[in-house]
Amino acid sequence: MKNKEYKSMNTIKNRNDISILVDKFYAKIRKDELLGPIFTGHISKEKWPEHLSKLTDFWETKLFGIPKFQGNPSLAHINVDKNLNYTVERTHFDTWLQLWFETIDELYEGELATMAKESASMMAKGQLSTVWQNRP
Hints:
mainly alpha, Globin-like, 6 helices, globular
């Protein structure tokens, strides 16, 4: 019987860890068949570094309570839905959430990783509801 090699996972400790998570996650998003065209259609190539930094600010605020994020995610999602002729559906948010969980699980474990999953789940439900409530 062979000994299984135990690989110790990292925990989320700082902004750099969040940046790694956000970068890897959005690399998957951009390659995703369903979400990729939406994100690349709304964020130009030269705007991605700024967008990733803003999302890192968001998660740093969410996970560490450091007030860096400035923005209105609800308005952004409402506008994307409008630009897509009101076709954003639950499957978009479910796919986003599945890729988020997958990326966290590949990189991190622990309390903040769990918190990032729980926060994302609540946000996905809230954003979907907001999008639907703001349709004509």
